[in-house]
Amino acid sequence: MADTTREQTAQLIEQGEAVLGLELGSTRIKAVLIGPDHQPLASGSHSWENQLVDDLWTYAIDDVWSGLQDCYAALAADVREQYGVELTRLRALGVSAMMHGYLALDADGELLVPFRTWRNTHTGAAVEALSEAFAVNIPHRWSVAHLFQAILDEEDHVSRVAQLTTLAGYVHWKLTGRRVLGVGDASGMFPIDSEARDYDAGLLERFDAMAAERGAALHLAELLPEVLVAGAEAGTLTADGAALLDPDGRLAEAVPLCPPEGDAGTGMVATNSVAVRTGNVSAGTSIFAMVVLEGPLSRPHHELDLVTTPAGDPVAMVHCNNGASELNAWVGLFAEFAAAVDLDLDRAAVFRALFGAALDGAADGGGLMAFNYLAGEPITGLDQGRPLFFRRPDSDFSLATFFRTQLYAAFGTLRIGMDVLHEEGVRLDRMFAHGGIFTTKGVAQRFLAAAVETPVAVGDVAAEGGAWGIAVLAAYLSRAADGASLQEFLDRDVFADVELSVLDPQPDDVDGFAAFMERYREAVPVVAAAAQHS
């Protein structure tokens, strides 16, 4: 960076013209600072992991704040190192986090039970009852499913629930004092009426009646956060909120915040896929596709969630509980081997070598089979997961085909959901992809194109992921006040000069992936048996 540019950037940061996005992902909390041109200026991160406590996946709330503080401190240090100034003022701020789950608080704002994350699949009875009563697919991880399961299980805390929210909504509330939620995140708590851009009023009444039949006197509308669309005023950073992020006291209060959003919504923004006939795939610990719909589906499908864009437009979501974690574990194993034989390779080099080898693997997986199921997978009807690899005796057991199979497995469950959308006649012009799995250029992107049978685009900006996406939504506050729609803002202000790499599906890959999927579907009972007997 030239000295002049560095000095200009330092000046705009000192003047409070930069915008901050914070996202609490499943394995990393990340902060991204962007300038008026929406390009990243600095970043910080903090690694964390969920824990299995009493058979439920959770994160300790203390870890939320220590992680955010460490992440913000890393960002401030990056600003100091790059530009020689302190980060004290911001033009706007946004918070995003993992969608869904169960954060139930009492009248004093204290957690009643440990945070139950999206990864938990113990809500089967609630899912069955609510989906039938609502005539809408209610997935296992939705907040309303967690609440109703707690009612069915007669958990003591239910009578004391005064507030129900998501992780993003919780952090936003602590920073601003406002109990609000972006419509995209809210759509993972309870069904949304897309015309009203709010919770479905009729279904709220139906839920209250179902709860009352089971002895729980609840008014769900009073427990849920207020729903806001992108660009709406969502409160300002309080002095206490600023201290939560920056205990050193340098960060000034009174920063405007955009509505808090879920990682699905920020992923849509980060890939400019909020218009109809566009979609995006976000790959991390989980993997999911978001497809903006032109019209309603013919009927409910258990493979599809109906959620919304941050502007409130209807979206079909294919959410797979399991993503790249098993793939990362195999890379780690090969990295250990490299170290054991004194090869000086960093993890990134091992990723590149293994991903590159996969390009030469058999197009149909060569008789190998893999499942990435560390957790249960509702789309395939499994409430427990077991990562598996097995093969036929006459299979092509080579490094190239082995790793191609692992990459195919990462997209296997996603393909099942996308097949349902194809059967519904949903059309896509292009799918955008982001996440670490796409860092090695032309590999996972190529296999995803085969899996979804649609051109797949990857861009450098989307590599910053949801933290950048929520920063862009925070920057949208001023443009929304000027009357620009979210789509107009993204097209004209953010993505006008962004270069994308687009790969079309290759016929051999498409045929090969289809053949792999025939064996994949037939092999799902093997995972069920493994879970039952191990």
Characterization of this structure:
Residues 19-244 form the Carbohydrate kinase FGGY N-terminal domain. It comes from Microlunatus kandeliicorticis. One of its GO terms (molecular function) is kinase activity. This protein has a domain at 272-460 and 499-534: Nucleotidyltransferase, domain 5 (2-Layer Sandwich). The chain contains 17 helices and 22 strands. It has helices spanning 3-14, 61-83, 124-134, 143-152, 167-176, 183-186, 201-213, 220-223, 239-245, 263-270, 325-340, 347-358, 399-423, 444-452, 465-481, 486-494, 507-533, and strands spanning 19-24, 28-34, 40-47, 51-53, 56-58, 92-97, 103-105, 163-165, 180-182, 192-193, 198-199, 226-228, 261-262, 278-283, 287-292, 305-308, 314-320, 368-371, 388-391, 430-434, 456-459, 500-503. A hairpin with a 5-residue loop joins β16 (305-308) and β17 (314-320). α13 (399-423) packs parallel to α14 and α13 (399-423) packs across α17 (507-533). The radius of gyration is 23 Å and the shape is globular. The mean pLDDT is 95.
Short description, anyone?
GO terms for molecular function: kinase activity. Residues 19-244 form the Carbohydrate kinase FGGY N-terminal domain. By secondary structure, the protein is α/β, with parallel strands linked by helices.
